[in-house]
Amino acid sequence: MNLVTLDDIAAAAERVAGHAVRTPLVAAPWADRPLWIKPESLQPVGSFKIRGAFNAVAGIDPQRRARGVVAYSSGNHAQAVAYAARAFGVPAWIVVPEDTPRVKVEATRAHGAEVVLVKTGERESAAYAIVEREDATLVPPFDDRAVIAGQGTIGLEIVADLPDVDLVLAPVSGGGLISGIAAAIKALRPQAQVWAVEPELAGDTAASLAKGELVSWSVADRNRTIADGLRSQPSELTFGHQRALVDGIVTVSEDEIRSAVATLAHRAHLVAEPSGAVTTAAVLHHGDKLPPGRTVAVLSGGNVDPDALVALLQS
Amino acid sequence: MNLVTLDDIAAAAERVAGHAVRTPLVAAPWADRPLWIKPESLQPVGSFKIRGAFNAVAGIDPQRRARGVVAYSSGNHAQAVAYAARAFGVPAWIVVPEDTPRVKVEATRAHGAEVVLVKTGERESAAYAIVEREDATLVPPFDDRAVIAGQGTIGLEIVADLPDVDLVLAPVSGGGLISGIAAAIKALRPQAQVWAVEPELAGDTAASLAKGELVSWSVADRNRTIADGLRSQPSELTFGHQRALVDGIVTVSEDEIRSAVATLAHRAHLVAEPSGAVTTAAVLHHGDKLPPGRTVAVLSGGNVDPDALVALLQS
């Protein structure tokens, strides 16, 4: 399989500069190992998704791009594509299930996108229908080399800020984030390990890596976790990256995720959504399964409803 | 008066590099003006104080420094001096009132400092007694050129990241933070304005600037605000900087501060202590009094008790 290269990622870094925030490493002296948090929650759309979406939209031929971009997502990818489309001054259609919380629909509309509400299960077909009708371009959430390369810019920044990093932890769902990060880290610092973290209740990637082939879990099963950004499954492309580049995976419980959200707020002064807190949960509760050393936990996003946040901080 | 210079601040930037986090500007598209937050809450000690304390400790003659440093503070300066002392491998004595919350005492001890508990009102005399006994060096919280220069590194970073900044807002209490920032901003971008923000209930600096001389408010009056980091008064040195360099001041109410803490958590994914949220409160509630344009609000710190944070997020 043709993996994303360091050159792809370096090109993405040039494109996203000035649009994605250059997030710092935030020291976490409250952990029992040298730990830094990489807070992607500080991105303009509240998650790392801006990096991949922006790089993908930037890479579309300008004449074609002018006809617009399309995405299907109820979450962070939707806002990221809408943001990138507006930055390039082109239309965006975002297809979301009709039961998506109004707050997320409004956030996507606020970036200037046209939100198309459809029945659950009809997202992909509706998105492709718009692509055909408008001759627009689909921006996939993870199954795309430009998206993976964009997320990989996180890996470049980690090595620049902490050249002797030993371990990088990233959440895994569709796998675009960890694929990009692993491609960057393994190219720049091969002796560092890259581990994935996943909710137990959506542990399809752990099962797949254990079996050596993609294992599918039902949507109903994956939707049990509160980590609503981690309910997707890898594609062949992202699974191929993981088999080649990822050193291990740990799963975390729902209580561990909740507790990590509270710890990040109270000790690191960072608001994480549950999906973004899984890496911290792994360090705090499963450190014995992880290799030792200087560790970076990628906090992937901070988009959590106000009421849910208050409840999580009391857990 | 001999004001802190750009050279002083540039030298401080070299010293604090690798110890203070290079905080990013976080876009805040939810405001009704172009706004970025500078989150000093992400510093190792949870506040900007690390910059000034580290620069001050770094500037002490090494032989003298080896005998140790002393500070009196119940808050963020205590942790910052303790952190800096440990970085240089020298002892630190931190004098705090005996009614200081245990959580803050423990945080200071966790940085390796010896915490000396004294009666309220005896902090300064106790600190000077230790300075004499140990032949150690006092690190003042704000009335010190090295401390001011360290805080000024925030101004350097703002202009580097947003060269066409129009307005910088910083909280004011003892005045070290705004003095340093204003010295940097006015040297690098004279056409930008620097405004101070203060709680109405501790509005001694607003009163002083209006009168053109230092006005003293009672401790009891200043202690009414929930912004517990903003209960000090300027010194001649910091007031001199403000008269020369600061363009204006606005005061904010307690409700406005509470509401800004909630907005920062829910919209910017940042945990601010009340003192750190006053600049955002000024933008959200007193924008009509401020000059227009590209605005940076300095979020000075994030050290807030867990229970207090939960209460603030529900306000």
From TrEMBL, chains A, B:
GO MF annotation list: ATP binding; L-serine ammonia-lyase activity; magnesium ion binding; pyridoxal phosphate binding; serine racemase activity; threonine deaminase activity; threonine racemase activity
Enzyme Commission number(s): 4.3.1.19
Positions of the Tryptophan synthase beta chain-like PALP domain: 19-301
InterPro entries recorded: Ser/Thr_deHydtase_PyrdxlP-BS, TrpB-like_PALP, TrpB-like_PALP_sf
Catalytic reactions on record: L-threonine = 2-oxobutanoate + NH4(+)
Short name of one Pfam family: PALP
Biological role: Catalyzes the anaerobic formation of alpha-ketobutyrate and ammonia from threonine in a two-step reaction. The first step involved a dehydration of threonine and a production of enamine intermediates (aminocrotonate), which tautomerizes to its imine form (iminobutyrate). Both intermediates are unstable and short-lived. The second step is the nonenzymatic hydrolysis of the enamine/imine intermediates to form 2-ketobutyrate and free ammonia. In the low water environment of the cell, the second step is accelerated by RidA.
Protein name: threonine ammonia-lyase
PANTHER family to which the protein is assigned, alphabetical: SERINE / THREONINE RACEMASE FAMILY MEMBER, SERINE RACEMASE
The UniProt record lists the keyword Magnesium: yes
Keywords for the protein's UniProt record, in alphabetical order: Lyase, Magnesium, Pyridoxal phosphate
Cofactor dependency: Ca(2+); pyridoxal 5'-phosphate; Mn(2+); Mg(2+)
Family: Belongs to the serine/threonine dehydratase family.
GO BP annotations listed: D-serine biosynthetic process
Enzyme class: lyase
Lineage, uppermost ranks: Bacteria, Bacillati, Actinomycetota, Actinomycetes, Pseudonocardiales
Keyword Ligase annotated: no
